[in-house]
Amino acid sequence: MALIISSLLLYLLFSTTVSCTGVFFENYTSLPFDEGYTQLFGDNNLMLLRDGKTVHISLDEKSGAGFASQDLYLHGFFSASIKLPSDYAAGVVVAFYMSNGDVFEKTHDELDFEFLGNIRGREWRVQTNIYGNGSTGVGREERYSLWFDPTEDFHRYSILWSHQRIIFYIDNIPIREMVRTPAMGGDFPSKPMSLYATIWDGSNWATLGGRYKVNYKYAPFVSEFSDLVLHGCAVDPTNHLSTCNNQESDRYNSVTISYQQRLAMNDFRKKYVTYSYCYDRERYPTRTPECSVDLREAKHVYRSSGERFMDRRRHHGKRHGRGSGGE
């Protein structure tokens, strides 16, 4: 009952919102796979359904699977409705993220949604990461539980990236915002990135720090993607110059979090944040400059029964260059 009430409150808070953000979401239609994406790896572990409007990527003993946007983008709105594998999914990692690691190997930027599988009877966890200019040593990770079962139906996960801010959304509810500050310097992602979606074996770290591995007797593990929205300022890959005009760039910069959305985000964060780098004084005795302390949120993080965060530095297996055939 408590879960139902929380879901209803979040919905009511967001549904009352009238802002440029709401209009922003409504103006973008989904894009068929062939018009915006290309397969990275996985061979037959990637399948297109509904005339290319739904993508299945799966993990089995031979391989995971993944796809990427055909273009690089400098700022924009990127979104997908995702349904995660059900039943036993320990060690399985599904990622929906932006990166330029194949172009800027040592100074890459990255914006992540990572979904971490679990043993039967325990919920999937969601993690967001932000890296700028190769700042992997200063991981800006957060981890969350959810108010719904992400294996039962599709739910929308979105990233808004502008010159001024980054916002992560779940079902159009903002769950995390990072506003650019001068003190961050190059740690704020600022170079063109591609959009990726992958499924892979994260047995070494994904579930209780590697305690539970992928059990392939339950394979294939299938994640479904639909309603793919790819709307941003495409760049010329040869010189990385943006094709956006000032009006388009200003449109992304104009997206902010309204008062009602702020209430919904605060409610989410007080209940569902299980780890935040801003409260991890062991890893960061001195807080990074963009962090501000919310005492109620901090208390929830400290009370959380979620697992201790494992700093793995690199996401082994997730990143596949455009010329790679996978692992």
Automatic annotation (TrEMBL):
EC category name: transferase
Domain of life, per lineage: Eukaryota
Subcellular location: Secreted, Cell wall; Secreted, Extracellular space, Apoplast
PTM (free text): Contains at least one intrachain disulfide bond essential for its enzymatic activity.
GO molecular function: hydrolase activity, hydrolyzing O-glycosyl compounds; xyloglucan:xyloglucosyl transferase activity
Pfam families, sorted: Glyco_hydro_16, XET_C
Keyword line: Apoplast, Cell wall, Cell wall biogenesis/degradation, Disulfide bond, Glycosidase, Hydrolase, Secreted, Signal, Transferase
Domain GH16 per the UniProt entry, residue ranges: 11-225
GO biological process: cell wall biogenesis; cell wall organization; xyloglucan metabolic process
Protein name (Swiss-Prot/TrEMBL): Xyloglucan endotransglucosylase/hydrolase
